[in-house]
């Protein structure tokens, strides 16, 4: 099973912002890991949102409606965390270049 990427710290912020109760948050991580494993198994990037339908179809065959909803929410929150993480890295890189005298 793949580990949750470095963005895990960033993953906590969307969970908090979406009012996911602290006791519920650990339940989202296994679904995210399952999604990341699925992406690895079928060789597509976890950021390819159009491929999510394949994953959600598999989940729908195996889990209850509530679990399907939680899984989808976990993945969407992961995408939000990735967006924030990428934006933060771009800002930090830009700031570093400016302080080094590069445009």
Q: What summary fits the major beta sheet?
A: none
Give the low-confidence spans: 93-98
In round numbers, the mean pLDDT is 75
Number of spatially distinct domains: 1
- Please report the number of helical segments: 4
What is the number of E strands? 0
Rg on CA atoms, Å: 16 Å
Share of residues in strands: under 5%
Order of helices and strands: HHHH
Overall, the morphology is: globular
How many angstroms does the end-to-end distance come to?
A: 42 Å
Structural class: mainly alpha
Indicate the percent of residues in helices: over 70%
Description:
With 103 residues, the protein is an all-alpha fold. It has one domain (8-99). It is 71% helix and 0% strand. It has helices at 8-17, 25-41, 52-62, 65-99. The model is unreliable at 93-98 (pLDDT under 50).
């Amino acid at each position: 099973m793949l580990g949750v990427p470095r963005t895990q710290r960033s993953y906590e912020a969307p969970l908090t912002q979406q009012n996911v109760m602290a006791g519920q948050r650990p339940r989202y991580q296994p679904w995210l890991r399952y999604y990341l494993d699925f992406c690895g198994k079928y060789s597509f990037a976890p950021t390819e949102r159009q491929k999510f339908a394949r994953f959600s179809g598999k989940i729908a065959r195996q889990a209850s409606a509530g679990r399907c909803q939680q899984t989808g929410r976990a993945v969407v929150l992961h995408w939000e965390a990735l967006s924030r993480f990428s934006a933060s890295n771009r800002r930090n890189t830009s700031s570093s270049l400016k302080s080094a005298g590069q445009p």
